[in-house]
């Protein structure tokens, strides 16, 4: 007869009980949580709303994103962490610090502008875009993108990355019966899946070598791995960097960008150009600066070369666009976004220097500037595309005669991207990035950047001049929908405010982010 089971000693049962208890800081996780909950609410509401009233789903989404963005305010100047290890409260999976809040503001603000653009786009599609699915996918992607900058372990980082990416595949190919849309979604899907596979392989090697997924612990243990595991961990570092290079659309992993932007609904192209990049660059920053600082001699030079290639290929690609080619305006913005990705990579490459936080602050400042003005340019493109469906650069000729204010705003956005006055914020942001390269001893990269800025001036100014030329045909005025007007207004106010007070974002280059 078997003896009765003996209770576990208190010394063994207590740690197990403690490990099962996890306190959650609901305020810290509120922004991505609200976005995800509203997404689920929209999906359920879609089942009960008649077709004639589907537009209410868009406004629920806009309100949800606005509420999520407002929840960032209580977190300002109050670093919070949650989902921490029981035995070490300093090792957490979610941290809401200055870096997190800045990127979450970019993501949620960009998603809000995208939603305003989408309200008009979905209505114009005349049921070509299923509304319930569209809004659910957009909010799901935004929730993943908002989670990613707060991730402080590799598992959460990859999950957030995929939650942001997978719905974006569907959004690109959601237009029914559109061959270009399906082809764009397929290219985007294949490239992103490849990037994920490579990243997971690299992360698995890093985990096998260090025995932890938390970024701060990886940074500590990776310096003292067993000699037999050196090759494994080095391979893991390289594969992880390659995977994130795909996500940032760095050359030579950029081939999907032009066709994907052209095939996607225009608001989704705008979303990918800003939020998609924020996701990739946030992950790259967390992996390099927090998890792998001891391998800076590997990723620093590699990212510097990628930055030089990316800005050069992107700007030359934009320069080669023909004004009369179909969708040339969107293609130019797509190639321009590749070039801008090169500028964003420069401070990350410089982060191996003695002051990495200043370099990362330069990237964050530039990303915030780029988000505001690039979304504004896409908003104007969406307006022009309502009457000129081919959306060629040539279609913008004489825009000032038809809509003076819109033409002036587009000119301002383009000058900000070029870094010319009165786009002061664009000029200051470029100087900040340039300074980060010089301070890190990357003089050759600063020279490459200066050459590329000069190349970009040509096509930005060429497009700007076209706005004020005499139109080839009589300009026809038309009513601008309220959501589209709101999107253009929001981006214009941000761009003008940042040009008037650039210190609002440039301070990130002088203060600690982590």
Give an account of the 3D structure.
The chain is 69% helix and 2% strand. It is built from 20 helices and two strands. A two-stranded antiparallel sheet has the order 1-2. Residues 1-18 have low confidence and may be disordered.
Largest beta sheet: strand ordering? 1-2
Query: How many extended strands?
Result: 2
Approximate strand percentage: under 5%
Largest sheet: 2 strands, antiparallel
Structural class: mainly alpha
Question: What features would you highlight for this structure?
Answer:
2% strand; 514 residues; 2 strands
Produce the secondary structure layout.
Blueprint: H1 10-20, H2 30-45, H3 55-70, E1 80-84, E2 92-96, H4 98-124, H5 131-147, H6 154-172, H7 179-210, H8 215-221, H9 230-247, H10 257-263, H11 266-291, H12 296-319, H13 328-349, H14 356-385, H15 399-402, H16 404-418, H17 424-439, H18 443-467, H19 482-500, H20 503-506
Antiparallel strand pairs: 1-2
Helix pairs in contact: 2-3, 2-5, 3-4, 3-5, 4-5, 4-11, 4-14, 4-19, 5-6, 6-7, 6-11, 7-9, 7-10, 8-11, 9-11, 10-11, 10-13, 11-13, 11-14, 12-13, 12-18, 13-14, 13-17, 13-18, 14-16, 14-17, 14-19, 16-17, 16-18, 17-18
């Amino acid at each position: 007869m078997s003896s009765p089971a003996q209770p576990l000693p208190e010394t063994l049962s207590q740690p197990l009980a403690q490990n099962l208890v996890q306190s959650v800081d609901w305020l810290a996780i509120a922004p991505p949580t609200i976005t995800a909950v509203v997404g689920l609410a929209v999906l359920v509401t879609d089942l009960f709303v008649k077709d004639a009233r589907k537009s209410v789903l868009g406004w629920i989404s806009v309100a949800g994103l606005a509420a999520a963005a407002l929840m960032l305010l209580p977190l300002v100047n109050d670093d919070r962490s949650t989902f921490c290890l029981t035995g070490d409260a300093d090792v957490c999976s979610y941290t809401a610090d200055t870096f997190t809040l800045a990127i979450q503001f970019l993501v949620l603000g960009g998603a809000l502008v995208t939603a305003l653009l989408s309200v008009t786009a979905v209505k114009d599609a005349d049921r070509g875009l299923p509304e319930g699915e569209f809004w659910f996918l957009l909010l799901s992607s935004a929730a993943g993108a908002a989670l990613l900058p707060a991730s402080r372990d590799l598992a959460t980082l990859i999950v957030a990355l995929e939650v942001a990416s997978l719905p974006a595949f569907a959004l690109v190919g959601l237009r029914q019966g559109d061959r270009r849309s399906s082809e764009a979604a397929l290219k985007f899907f294949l490239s992103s899946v490849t990037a994920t596979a490579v990243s997971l392989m690299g992360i698995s090697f890093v985990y096998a070598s260090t025995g932890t997924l938390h970024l701060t612990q990886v940074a500590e243990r990776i310096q003292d791995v067993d000699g037999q595991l050196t090759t494994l961990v080095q391979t893991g570092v390289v594969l992880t960097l390659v995977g994130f290079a795909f996500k940032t659309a760095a050359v030579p992993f950029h081939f999907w960008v032009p066709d994907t932007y052209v095939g996607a609904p225009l608001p989704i192209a705008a979303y990918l150009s800003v939020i998609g990049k924020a996701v990739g660059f946030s992950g790259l920053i967390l992996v390099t600066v927090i998890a792998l600082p001891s391998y800076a001699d590997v990723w620093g030079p590699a990212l510097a070369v990628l930055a030089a290639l990316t800005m050069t290929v992107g700007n030359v690609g934009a320069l080669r666009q023909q004004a009369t080619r179909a969708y040339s305006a969107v293609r130019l913005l797509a190639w321009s976004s590749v070039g801008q990705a090169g500028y964003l990579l420069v401070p990350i490459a410089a982060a191996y220097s003695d002051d990495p936080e200043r370099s990362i602050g330069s990237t964050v400042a530039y990303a915030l500037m780029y988000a505001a003005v690039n979304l504004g340019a896409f908003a104007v493109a969406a307006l022009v595309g309502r009457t000129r469906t081919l959306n060629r650069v040539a279609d913008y000729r004489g825009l000032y005669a038809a809509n003076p204010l819109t033409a002036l705003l587009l000119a301002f956005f383009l000058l900000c991207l070029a870094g010319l006055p009165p786009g002061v914020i664009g000029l200051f942001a470029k100087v900040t990035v340039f300074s980060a390269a010089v301070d890190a001893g990357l003089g050759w990269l600063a020279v490459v950047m200066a050459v590329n800025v000069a190349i970009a001036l040509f096509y930005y100014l060429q497009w700007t001049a076209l706005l004020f030329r005499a139109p080839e045909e009589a300009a026809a005025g038309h009513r601008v929908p309220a959501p589209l007007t709101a999107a253009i207004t929001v981006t214009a106010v941000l761009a003008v405010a940042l040009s008037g007070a650039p210190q609002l974002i440039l301070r990130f280059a002088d203060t600690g982010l982590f």
